TrEMBL record, chains A, B:
Localisation per UniProt entry: Cytoplasm
Keyword set includes DNA damage: no
One CC-aspect GO term: cytoplasm
Catalytic activity: a fatty acyl-[ACP] + phosphate = an acyl phosphate + holo-[ACP]
Assembly, per entry: Homodimer. Probably interacts with PlsY.
Lipid metabolism keyword on record: yes
Main location: cytoplasm
Name the record gives this protein: Phosphate acyltransferase
This protein's encoding gene: plsX
Length: 322, 322
């Protein structure tokens, strides 16, 4: 695809902690303005339909589909798969499966989203799917970190899968053939850390299709010391949230401090809380929008989804593992 | 002990990435000025002896002991226990064991420090030792987080031990009888997370001597949502370093941004990178100074050590587990 390709984004307008109809509608409007070649299929409640009309969103650029059913964030995985047949989350993934959309976006619960995506789209080449985010690593520099919580626990073979997925994604996003793949650890020396990370590092080193760059510590997440940072979903999720916690402590300061913190924040550090995560390893493109990042998050995730949909990411991963 | 009690601190003057003789000497001088009732036994090289004289540190307040042998950060645990008989790290721990000092401070490697402390001092009541740090959680508010890397991996019983150690430490530090004990997790709902954290939460809930406050997420580490935050050493270490990484991205900004970031930083967030960690669960007081936090870190760790030594922490833990 080239940059003129029309992209259709299927948006789950029901999920997320901070998501209300009004903010979803303004996110849709914003994304359409920002990205002239996308069309959005919006799945949600009648309230959302009204909000879209109220926001005067260009009706030739979006399609509203009545799908008010919302899956609770922490619904039991079996209940997610067996029930909620008409939920907005299920339907956006089905739209990708049925080629009615190029990419699905949801800010609903990670558990339901991953379960449904694996179930409906299937996995690629037996790889373990993982949630992958772009972390800013300096002016115009990014790292990819995965897994961020698609899996509650992982073994070394899973981490090796994440390395393959992360490398392919990095190649697609940044056109770098051999990105530096690192395993997140509590030290950089070979004898440091848990049995899991040591075994994962060995597997990644033995795989000559990967450029293993050893261990990286969590204080180097934003410093361009690694291109692809591989970790289990528990650790990755904790690392990212700890980073967010500190950023918030700066940015939620009161009075003059709030003003100074806006001036102080390096521009390149700006977008990381807003970008969505891509679910890599399933046979279709699914973006998890970061619900707690606020109103801007859905709009940014829509734009990221459209950009990612132009990269042939899923097809490239398929070729890689064949 | 009361606040007039004389405290003797045994300082390992050899360890740490950023530690040179001059900065150790100025840290000693600074700590002596800040805390009139401490005496410091400084273990190190002749170079350090010269630096102490050069810095004109009051010679009645410190004692220099020639102990130039330094244990490499990532030395093999067996080699640490069998060799390095005259190392400064070993000798400061022996000084605590022999009641020649109230507390040992080292910025050497975590692995060697924990191995030697467990070996020389012994553990208390079969509890699993853990490294515990104070995290700022708002103006004049702190949380305690443990383990931060004393153990490469932990089971649920270990996390229960950490809860007991953390509660006792919180009681000693802040005179609160029933601190909120939380387990660090990727979500706050009961069904979220790894098998380890679910089992640990169950054990902590079943222990009626503890005030189990459920799960806490890593973006709430600095928000006063928990008093004691229990986690395995791998996750705790990653969480803290990720937080440091973001703080550094703010504070290492260049030019005007550096100026604004100093103004922006909430005062209460200041000290967390400098405070040492206490090794809880061994029969003697050992403080790990954070080597990479820079020159101020050793001085702050010395002061924290002196304050902690007045709290009868080890004796209180012993009583608790009897």
């Amino acid at each position: 695809m080239n940059s003129e390709t029309k992209i259709t984004v299927a948006l789950d307008g029901t999920g997320g902690d901070n998501v209300d109809a009004k903010s979803v509608a303004s996110a849709v409007r914003f994304a359409l303005v920002l990205y002239p070649n996308i069309k959005i299929k919006v799945y949600g409640s009648q309230k959302l339909k009204v909000a879209l009309a109220f926001e005067k969103v260009d009706s030739s650029r979006y399609e509203f589909i009545d799908a008010p059913e919302c899956i609770p964030q922490d619904e039991d995985p079996r209940a997610v798969l067996e029930g909620y047949r008409t939920s907005a989350m299920r339907r956006v993934i089905e739209a990708v499966k049925d080629k009615e959309a190029d990419v699905a976006v949801s800010s609903g619960g990670t558990g339901p989203l991953v379960s449904l995506s694996r179930h409906i789209l299937g996995t690629i080449g037996g790889l373990r799917p993982a949630l992958c985010a772009k972390l800013p690593a300096g002016p115009s520099k990014y790292s990819l970190m995965l897994d961020l919580g698609a899996n509650a626990s992982s073994n070394a073979k899973d981490l090796h899968d994440f390395a393959i997925l992360g490398q392919t994604a990095y190649q697609c996003f940044y056109n770098v053939s051999k990105p530096r793949v690192c395993v997140l650890n509590v030290g950089s020396e070979r004898n440091k850390g848990s049995a899991l990370v040591k075994e994962a590092r060995d597997l990644i080193e033995q795989d000559h299709s990967l450029n293993c760059y050893g261990f990286v510590e969590a204080d180097k997440l934003f410093t361009d010391d690694a291109d692809v940072i591989v970790t289990d979903g528990f650790t990755g999720n904790v690392a990212l949230k700890a980073a967010e916690g500190v950023a918030s402590a700066f940015l939620n300061a009161q009075g003059m401090k709030k003003f100074f913190s806006k001036l102080a924040r390096p521009e390149w550090l700006q977008p990381w809380q807003y970008n969505g995560s891509v679910l890599l390893g399933v046979d279709g493109l699914v973006i998890k929008s970061h619900a707690s990042a606020g109103k801007e998050a859905v709009a940014v995730a829509l734009v990221e989804a459209a950009k990612t949909a132009q990269l042939n990411l899923v097809e490239t991963i398929k070729k890689q593992v064949q």
